Amino acid sequence: MHIRRAEIQRQTAETKIAVEWSLDGRGESKIATGLPFFDHMLTLFARHSLTNLIVAAEGDTEVDSHHTIEDTGLVLGQALVQAVGDKQGLVRYGSFLLPMDETLCRVALDLSGRPFLEYHLPESLQYQRFERIGGHFPLQYVEEFLRAFCNEGGVTLHVDVLRSRDLHHAAEAVFKGVARALDAALRKDPRVLGVPSTKGVLV
After folding, report:
1. Rounded to whole angstroms, how far apart are CA atoms 168 and 184?
2. Three-class SS of residue 107?
3. DSSP-derived secondary structure letter, 74
4. Which residue of 5, 39, 74, 155 could cross-link 31, Cys pair, CB 3.0 to 4.6 Å?
5. Among the listed residues 65, 80, 67, the one whose alpha carbon sits nearest the alpha carbon of residue 8
6. What is the spatial distance between Cα 121 and Cα 43, in angstroms, rounded to a whole number?
């Protein structure tokens, strides 16, 4: 039986990232990226996806936080592919409507093997998306993180922040919504024989 767990390391001149990810967990995490708000997002991502996640990241944050956030998304995507394995018996699809106070976020994803991100913010936040949350994390970087994750993880992901007036709430609703949708998609269904595709493969 395939144990749905992965360990991935990636080192460049800009970042050093190490990830351990167990997809069949209890939402436990140990996160250290040097970016407190990003740590908060990844902690709640693990909690709400019911996966166990360890992330240790070092990056050139004296330049900007972008490299650390994007590269963490890349490594998480690679870890997802390794941990999921051959996708036998997988539900494959997941969606969630996540309310957080005044914010409402809709997420739908497909573990299709085909990377694609469709991401939309409400007009109320369009001109604030480069403002930094917690000093290091512009809302815009949520999209950059998700694109890296989708590209390496082979995930088709649609995210719509339907309404929001708060940058923190918008970011948190996205991470929680993606986590809950991923939890649904990663479940096994005993009725599914082989991979959930009429093609016989998911690539």
Report:
1. 25
2. strand
3. H
4. 39
5. 80
6. 23
Please state, in angstroms and rounded to a whole number, the distance separating the CA atoms of residues 166 and 105: 12
Closest CA to 178 of 103, 95, 122: 95
pTM of the model: 0.94
Residue percentage of the chain with pLDDT more than 90: 77
Domain made up of 5-186: CATH architecture: 2-Layer Sandwich (3.30)
The identity of residue 20, as a single letter, is: E
* Spans of all domains in the chain: 5-186
Name the E strands within 12-92: 15-22, 29-32, 52-59
CA dihedral for 170, 171, 173, 174, sign (positive or negative)? positive
| Tokens read off for 89 | 């018996």
Alpha-carbon distance of 34 to 43, in angstroms, equals 13
Q: Let me know: does 141 contact 81? Beta carbons within 8 Å.
A: no
At residue 82, φ and ψ (nearest 5 deg) are -65, -45
Contact 72, 17 (CB under 8 A): yes
pLDDT of 198 > 70? The answer is no
For 34-76, list the strands marked E by DSSP: 52-59
